[in-house]
Amino acid sequence: MKLIMLGAPGAGKGTQAARVAEALQIPHISTGDIFRANIKNGTELGKKAKAYMDQGKLVPDELTCDLVADRIAKDDCSGGFILDGFPRTIPQAEALDKVLTERGEKIDFAVNIDVPDEAIVSRMSGRRACVGCGATYHIEFNPPKKEGICDNCGAELILREDDKPETVATRLKVYHEQTQPLIDFYEKKGALVTVDGTLPMDEVYKAILGKLGK
Ligand code: AMP
Hints:
This protein is an alpha/beta fold. The chain contains nine helices and eight strands. The protein has a domain at about 1-115 and about 180-210: P-loop containing nucleotide triphosphate hydrolases (Rossmann fold), CATH 3.40.50.300. About 45% of the residues lie in helices and about 15% in strands. The relative contact order is 0.19. Adenosine monophosphate (AMP) binds near residues 9 and 59.
């Protein structure tokens, strides 16, 4: 199954994508995680991406589309994949379509996790990310077992630069201008399913699996 996750920053795409990927045994591909790994490793791509990310802006399409095309061409994606954080613009969605069409494939479902802006702002300030593996937590809704420490790898949890309130405001603006039009794009293709992202995390997860017929 080939899936993409849609939703505002902080809607819970990453957390849900990780769980769904595990349930369906398909790779979870997060462009944000790929960029952050590149920043950590000091690559050229990382240096370029960081300047945009720290300001809450989108990394340009030309740095993003090929990276995803290469990733989904790998063997582990032959049985499907979940894209989390891509596409984020109409040109990215068109580039993805083109790559898939050339292979006689298509996106089966675009899962839209719907959360109003007011809830996003309060959520993001409680978000914590692992400096080691990138796993995300929420101090109230999804706390780690030990405060400030990642359950997966034991590394420190921090408030990401791009989760700080001033950056969140920019990210929401960018989301409404550039990413929200994808909801229509996938609705027209008959691939859109929407879940209420304000529900407790387990319920959101069950609702997603239900919409996927699992
Ligand atoms: P995320 O972890 O998905 O919230 O992404 C964090 C940041 O990485 C975003 O605010 C963007 O700066 C950048 N980013 C991630 N995915 C994309 C994408 N598909 N296109 C452009 N920028 C992206």
